Amino acid sequence: MRGTIIHGPGDVRVEDREDPTIQKPTDAIIRVTAACVCGSDMWPWRGIDEIQDPRPMGHEYVGVVEQIGDDVRNVSVGDFVVGSFMASDNTCEICESGFQSRCIQGEFATPGGAQSELLRVPLADGTLVATPGQPDPKLIPSLLAASDVLGTGWFGAVAAQAGPGKTVAVVGDGAVGLLAVLAAKELGAERIIAMSRHESRQKLAREFGATDIVEERGEDGVAKIKELTDGYGAHSVVEAVGTQESMLQAIHSARPGGHVGFVGVSHDVSLPGETLFAAEVSLLGGPAPVRRFLPELIQLIWDRKIDPGRVFDLELPLGEIAEGYKAMDERRAIKALIRP
Amino acid sequence: MRGTIIHGPGDVRVEDREDPTIQKPTDAIIRVTAACVCGSDMWPWRGIDEIQDPRPMGHEYVGVVEQIGDDVRNVSVGDFVVGSFMASDNTCEICESGFQSRCIQGEFATPGGAQSELLRVPLADGTLVATPGQPDPKLIPSLLAASDVLGTGWFGAVAAQAGPGKTVAVVGDGAVGLLAVLAAKELGAERIIAMSRHESRQKLAREFGATDIVEERGEDGVAKIKELTDGYGAHSVVEAVGTQESMLQAIHSARPGGHVGFVGVSHDVSLPGETLFAAEVSLLGGPAPVRRFLPELIQLIWDRKIDPGRVFDLELPLGEIAEGYKAMDERRAIKALIRP
Question: Which domain of life is it from (chains A, B) (predicted)?
Fold first, then answer.
């Protein structure tokens, strides 16, 4: 099969690789219908995350089950499935509490990289969710979004306790931030403030449900949020960047007693205890337990109630994936969908 | 009147000072029946918090209202009252959401220091809570505890979402930690693990409701908590120290999806974003909104259902307060009660 390997900063290549095989009776092999490039893939691509050895890339996927291990019960060959980037048994105490991203048996769901033709998924029963039938091709981008960026934005909004009567601010206008706006809207938030200075992203944020746009960043952005909320700050803030500035912007934008959901993968962030103590906001973040939300998100997409696939503004065949990385790095594209 | 002033590390003196007077129509003056020395008073006493100028000490108090401003409606002259260390209007959006410690009009409730004979309390209506009548003198220590250490331990347990079916770990065996144990018990926790290596404190922790004692600290303490919880970690952890080690111990002792309530005043704490991202626990802390809990706590004390005053193991007249600071610094006393 063909699959994507990163060799160094700015150097991703599509190569011939061994087909994955069932290694444990709980594995499934899927034929990838669509995959994509993640904002977090930019970290190694930009050389910020060190690349020790060439490694496969991609952790977002939808596809058709091609083979299952002997113990797999919940999905069958031929099913169209969506999975998370984290494999989970979906039965341990941590999974049952809704944190499948931290399953006691958990491991990465895409050891061979999802930006490829075939993919082995561990713990298939607890990781993969079949759609109600073979999907209308128009739904593929949205189902793919559910695999990570929608699930992650949704978790950010849930962790920030977005809901009726709440003012929600979203720091970050990448795909996750934009989909946190959509999530906040679906969760019933009264007011949604998108922090963005890019016109096309502002437009999509408004279409997803943002009621206000704030272009200022850092402490100026905080001041603007305070101004918009009678001096109190937002009830809920979603952080979808992962830098020191964005984390502090998020924490300071929330009112005391408010909630910050942080889903941007942290890079060189260090939070002073005194800042957290003084802010008195609830902080919850980490890799999103996408599996918790998948059944609900798939149904919303299936019923055409949400259209998160709109974050894909570039579509490429697998062989041209390097252009997807470049376009995202240069912010020419919000997110690139890849067809193997 | 006589009041306590700190002049430098290890140097607290009881001095003759001006009687406080009503400065705003929302103020009240109370005659202090009992005050005490707080764990947080140790920071300046030990020279860890810099003392720029001599300043009055004490922020925990019960007493009798001696005078009220023209706008005060909720307490009357002669009432026995308990107040928090933070003044609050108890009507703003932040107060209404239960975060009176961060009232939009908030200020310190004890500008003149509570370790004194008389005290001016701002925003008396929203800050002070009158007891159902003049209390039995035996209840004074417990009512005084409600003013801070009980309210703070209670907030820690609530922030950590202690409750039925939960395993709660408490880091710190000072008065706040011990009362977090009591709070967890009252909130219905199934299992309460007190982390302490002091025999007398372990004993009190058990009497307050601890089911297990862990003597190990740091990563060894974390390993022990994991061992006691089938490898998952505690559902709820209360941090009641405020150091880097204790914060990391608390965060790592909680299971993914669990909750950490941190109420130890942070000193030189810096939390790596990566650690928080990987831990995937909810974090909430800060100055406790004691006012939220006061009516309930006063009633529990009044009805003899809880006896938090047991944390006071030293009682001194105001003139001997310096010995209270010394005894607490040397850990000869858990907490010193002062009678002006």
Answer: Bacteria
- What is the DSSP secondary structure assignment for residue B136, as one 8-state letter? P
Per the CB < 8 Å rule, is B284 touching A280? yes
Give percent above pLDDT 90 in chain B. 96
Distance from C-alpha of B222 to C-alpha of B218, rounded to nearest angstrom: 6
Orientation of helix B175-186 relative to helix B149-159, angle to 10°: 60
Cβ atoms within 10 Å, residue A96 = 11
Average pLDDT of every residue of chain B: 97
Residue reference for tokens 């809570």: B129
The Cβ of residue A308 has, within 10 Å, a number of other Cβ atoms equal to: 27
Which 8-state DSSP code applies to residue A319? G
Q: What is the pLDDT of residue B50?
A: 87
Nearest chain B Cα distance for residue A135, angstroms: 33
What is the overall mean pLDDT for chain A? 97
Residues from B in contact with A at Cβ < 8 Å: 93-94, 97-99, 101-102, 104, 159, 230-232, 242, 244, 247, 255-257, 262, 265-274, 276-287
pLDDT at B49: 86
C-alpha angle A94/B191/B38, rounded to 5°?
A: 110
Lowest pLDDT segment from A62-66, A264-268, B91-95, B287-291 = A264-268
- Put simply, the answer to whether A287 touches B277 (Cβ < 8 Å) is yes
Inspect the interface and report whether the beta carbons of B287 and A277 lie closer than 8 Å. yes
Let me know how long chain A is: 340
Residue-level pLDDT at B329: 94
Chain A CB contacts of B283 below 8 Å: 276, 282-284
Residue A317 is encoded by which pair of tokens? Answer: 């065949």
Beta strands A167-171 and A191-195: pairing type?
parallel
Confidence band (pLDDT; 50, 70, 90) for B40?
confident
Tokens of B308: 């938090």
Return the half-sphere exposure (C-beta side, CA atoms, 13 A cut-off) of residue A207: 12
Q: Do B266 and A274 touch (CB under 8 A)?
A: yes
B-interface mutation test, from A105, A190, A252, A280, most B Cβ less than 10 A away: A280
- Of residues A98, A265, A282, nearest to B282 (C-beta): A282
- Contact A340/A116 with Cβ under 8 angstroms? yes
Could you report the per-residue pLDDT of A139-170, keeping only the tens digit for each?
Answer: 999 999 999 999 999 999 999 999 999 999 99
What is Dmax (Cα atoms) for chain A? 60
Name the DSSP class of B333.
-
Report how far residue B260's alpha carbon sits from residue B237's, in angstroms, rounded to the nearest whole number.
Answer: 5
Q: Which helix (H) or strand (E) holds B329?
A: helix B321-329
Q: Cβ separation of A256 and B99 shorter than 8 Å?
A: yes
- Domains of chain B with CATH codes: 2-148+289-339 (3.90.180.10), 152-285 (3.40.50.720)
Give the residue numbers in A contacting B (CB under 8 Å), as ranges: 93-94, 97-99, 101-102, 104, 159, 230-232, 242, 244, 247, 255-257, 262, 265-274, 276-287
Residue given tokens 């111990």 in the structure block: B249
pLDDT at A78 over 90: yes
Which of B257, B284, B286 lies closest to A278 in CB terms?
B286
Q: What is the C-alpha to C-alpha distance for residues B311 and B322, in angstroms, rounded to an integer?
A: 19
The C-alpha R_g of chain A, in whole angstroms, comes to 19
